Amino acid sequence: MRIVCIGGGPAGLYFGILMKMLDPAHKISVVERNRPYDTFGFGVVFSDATMDNMRKWDPVTADTIEQAFNHWDDIEVLIKGRRMRTTGHGFVGIGRKRLLNILQARAEELGVELIFEREVNSDLEFPDADLIVACDGVNSKVRAKYAETFQPDMLMRPNRYIWLGTNRPFDAFTFDFRKTEHGWFQSHIYKFEEGAATFIVETTEEAYLAHGLDKMDQGESIAFCEKVFAEILEGHHLVSNARHLRGSAWLSFPRLICGKWTAFNGNSHVVLMGDAAHTAHFAIGSGTKLALEDAIELTNQFKTHGAIKDSIPAVLKAYEELRRVDVARIQNAARNAMEWFEVVGSRYADTLEPEQFMYSLLTRSQRISHENLRLRDKTWLEGYERWFAERSGVPATNERVTPPMLTPFQIRGLSLHNRIIVSPMAMYSAEEGVPNDFHLVHFGSRALGGAGLLFTEMTCVSPEARITPGCCGLWNDAQAAAYKRIVEFVHRNSQARIGIQLGHAGRKGSTRVAWEGMDEPLPDHNWPLVSASPVPYLPDGQIPEPMSRAEMDEVRDQFVAAARRAAAAGFDILELHCAHGYLLSSFLSPLTNRRSDGYGGSIENRARYPLEVFRAIRAVWPEDKPMSVRLSCHDWAEGGNTPEDALAFAKLFKAAGADLIDCSSGQVWADDHPIYGRLYQTPFADKIRNEVGIATIAVGAISEADHANSIIAAGRADLCAIARPHLADPAWTLHEAAKIGVKQVAWPKQYLSGKSQYEANLERLAAGVKA
């Protein structure tokens, strides 16, 4: 084949090398605009795993790189006068120029044609090419030419950064956080060769402008950074090699995602690779990793399908399908890490103690979890667990340290023995709103299963407030008596506490039970619906009536009456349901609230009625018992509420006396488009907790102790609500504790023989012995 790589970075060079190794008969050219030894930036970094992959494909290049790279395992964090270190992280650093020179030499050795100082303006300049690899960077001219095909989505991120270097020696990947009069600055520092380190300085746009950095030239910017980071530089200087940049050389990071990576120009097949196809923020150091692994995967597909011209369409199709999954995973992690640094000053640096700040930093991408940290540095993690446990009130013992999810939590007069919650989950099994034996067994078994707190399903404040005919209610004494029986069982037979969630279905009421058609209207015996505005949930659903002031008063009083009954029944906490498109949620969302009176329009107006209800309940709910509010923190639909709106609502509810925000999302608009994934709603709890200063509950796709420990240890939430896993396993908390080797958790005395056998079976399984 005739192959042309436009762009002489790691992607193009390494692909040329691998394809020449696959078949020396290929005629391959790599065309680069710069001179052979020109490069910008200083060092690049990638993981041990990438080196292992390179070693499989080209041991010669891998060996040469290994002789030139600097390997380190330690990460060091400096903040608020503290210097903290952890090990076991496995990074490789090498000068970008040295890496390119190694790849250039290897390519020439194998017969790849290297063409320097040629500016390529179009792929059509190579009419003889069977395959054109566009690896011409984030500002790719080839991608721009076929933008309609490649569908690039470029977003400039808000932070500013400057890429510098220093001759100050560093023996760890170092993060240094410094507060100035206008905000926080952070440096990302790593050694890439003897006597040389990359030194990236990053800050917010606000701090950048407030310090006048936009008006400084490069020399002035460097002098500013030397002053801010004088302590860690220890008299050494910072330097720049960004001669090609005008002004101060401060940049904004371009996040790039492309809808397609391949095209046909009428003569040649064109494929994007490296930064031309996707970018990953330097916060996890994956740009070079992605470029090299792009080259490996494309070569692998030629090896699989045949390295001939006729195979190109099938190769490119398979390459894009397979590679897109891995790239999305890395980009997602990079986005998490990038966003962490974008809000570090407003969310973490001032609020978290240094120990927790470091844990949050290490787990910022959500690729590194609690147990993964244990594998990397057991000593450091156990020291952190001990620190966290002591601050949660757990006395020091010689037993294994209590992991974060099993530490106690206190809020008002409520003491929870651990931080796991059984989520409110509708069972649709009540009779005339009365909980029955099913509910007793359902809640009782989960209370015995080790959770610290369990919530009832959304309990409705009137017959018309129900979602379905099978929903529980608390509008009469019979319902209250049935609930009292359940509460007393939980209190008498377990350490768990139990809370009630009160709500009103609003526009989502009068529907069938879930297994007969979720959200589908009842075939008969419907009841009238009310909402903020006459907007049905489903297009063919019943149209609700907009609430009048008199109806608002009536419903508010129903909530108050239900709260009084809940208090009398002995519930430990009350949660007000203001999420998922139900009545109070319908006031909060602009998608469902189209009122022109004082209850519509601005955030304050939309929150007015839910706050009225909350305050009325708080006035009758016992002072020593907490109240939480469940919010949809993202409507996942155009024109709906965003996390910023949720932040505003959380501030209002906190001011009204809320103790907890239960951070869910979606289900407000039938045509919403959530971006699902592991822990996908946790960022909402993180944002509200650390920007509003109120305790939060994380919920959604949390299914392992590792997830819960990571969330709680990092301060992303105070409690974790587990839903579906608790349906599958009532003793989820006890079982997850056993899986991570925690034996000091109390089981019900009636089940103690099962505890020892369960733990023994897990130990046998871990040892590879069949039970």
Keywords, please?
39% helix, 771 residues, globular, eight-stranded mixed β-sheet, FAD-bd, alpha/beta, eight-stranded parallel β-barrel, FAD/NAD-bd_sf
General description of the model:
By secondary structure, this protein is an alpha/beta fold. Helices cover about 40% and strands about 20% of the residues. Strands 5, 6, 10, 11, 12, 13, 14 and 15 form an eight-stranded mixed sheet that branches. The chain starts with a strand and ends in a 5-residue tail after the last helix. The model has no long low-confidence stretch (mean pLDDT about 95).
Mean pLDDT: 94
Q: How would you name the oligomeric state of the polypeptide chains in this document?
A: single chain
Overall body shape: globular
Radius of gyration using CA atoms only: 30 Å
Number of strands: 29
End-to-end separation in angstroms reads 56 Å
Give the helix tally. Answer: 25
Helix content: 25-40%
Contiguous runs where pLDDT drops below 50 for at least 5 residues: none
Question: How would you sum up the major sheet?
Answer: 8 strands, mixed
Structural class call reads: alpha/beta
Fold blueprint:
Elements: E1 2-6, H1 10-22, E2 27-31, E3 43-47, H2 48-57, H3 59-68, E4 70-72, E5 75-79, E6 82-86, E7 91-95, H4 96-110, E8 113-115, E9 131-134, H5 141-145, H6 147-150, E10 152-166, E11 173-180, E12 183-193, E13 196-203, H7 205-210, H8 218-228, H9 230-233, E14 238-239, E15 251-258, E16 262-264, E17 269-272, H10 287-305, H11 312-349, H12 354-362, H13 370-376, H14 378-391, E18 409-411, E19 414-416, E20 420-422, H15 437-448, E21 453-460, H16 477-493, E22 497-503, E23 530-531, E24 545-546, H17 549-569, E25 573-578, H18 583-588, H19 603-620, E26 627-632, H20 643-656, E27 660-664, H21 682-692, E28 695-699, H22 705-713, E29 719-722, H23 724-728, H24 732-739, H25 752-766
Helix pairs in contact: 1-4, 1-10, 2-3, 2-10, 3-4, 10-11, 11-12, 13-14, 15-16, 16-17, 17-19, 19-20, 20-21
